[in-house]
Amino acid sequence: MKLYNSVGPNPQIVRIFIAEKGLSIETVEIDLRGGENRQGPYLERNPAGQCPCLETDDGQFISEITAICEYLEDKHPVPPVIGTTPGEKAETRMWTRRVDLNICEKLGDGFRYGEGLRFFKDRIPTVPEASDGLKRIAQEKLTWLDSLMVGKSFLCGERFTLADILLYCMLTFFAGVGQPINEQNKNVAAWLARVGERPSVNA
Q1: Separation in Å, CA 119 to CA 34, 98, 106, 186
Q2: What pLDDT digit, counting tens, does each position of 5-21 carry?
Q3: Torsion angle, CA of 201/142/160/196, rounded to 10 degrees?
Q4: For the segment 78-91, what is each residue's pLDDT rounded down to a tens digit?
Q5: pTM flag (> 0.85)
Q6: For residue 28, is pLDDT > 90?
Q7: Do 188 and 145 form a contact (C-beta atoms < 8 A)?
Q8: What is the mean pLDDT of residues 94-117?
Q9: Is the dihedral of CA 63, 69, 70, 76 positive or negative?
Q10: Do 49 and 38 contact (CB within 8 A), yes or no?
């Protein structure tokens, strides 16, 4: 297999997932800033022009971080990072979906329409006037999440999962580009510290 890798939180999510599973996958660096992802032959592999993208041993190309991670989990179920039972898998997917839609997408678009506008305005449709509102929604949802983290080590209780990886990468990345983490969310802050101690986060 090959992982087409680049800068940014999305490839980092897959790299951490791979590290948590103890896998070794060849990486190919894509020049995201230079626009290599928007040109052929990369677009032949991934018409959406996004990174990361996984090339499987049988020549299939898989993009979208959750699809890549679920493929790797199915191919290499031990150790589990999504789950072993239907209930565990459903819980992980539930939390992955919640944090992705309610927090991560808002953080991302808030940045693309705000601090990142110069870079993104000629690459994707942008709505600059929506930036502040999207950032506010993300922060409100983080406060909502904080209230649900009482007594929990991770989003799925004591299980460290894809949902934690997704949220950790997004929060730490966007904290450095204009969306700092609210220190009043004590449970989220403690969770961030726990995740930050895992060796995989350096992948």
Answers
A1: 11, 28, 18, 33
A2: 999 999 999 999 999 99
A3: 30
A4: 999 999 999 999 99
A5: yes
A6: yes
A7: yes
A8: 97
A9: positive
A10: yes
Spatial separation of the C-alpha atoms in residues 82 and 69, rounded to whole Å: 9
Average pLDDT, the chain: 96
- Give the residue from 77, 53, 84 showing the smallest Cα distance to 67: 53
Token pair for 54: 């996984």
User: Which tokens hold the place of 45?
Assistant: 């592999």
Which tokens hold the place of 94? Answer: 């539930």
pLDDT, average across residues 90-97: 98
The SS3 call for residue 176 is coil
Residue ranges in 78-179 assigned as alpha helix (H) = 86-99, 105-112, 117-120, 131-148, 162-175
- Using the 8-state DSSP alphabet, how is residue 49 labeled? -
Q: What are phi and psi of 159, to 5 degrees?
A: -95, 125
Kindly list the structural domains of the chain, giving each domain's residue range(s) and its CATH number in brackets, ordered by start: 2-75 (3.40.30.10), 86-202 (1.20.1050.10)
Q: Is 93 exposed, middle or buried (0-12, 13-18, 19+ CB in 10 A)?
A: middle
How many other C-beta atoms can be found within 10 angstroms of the C-beta atom of residue 88? 16
Which run of H or of E encompasses 4? Answer: strand 2-5
Q: What are the residues facing 159 on neighbouring strands? A: 156
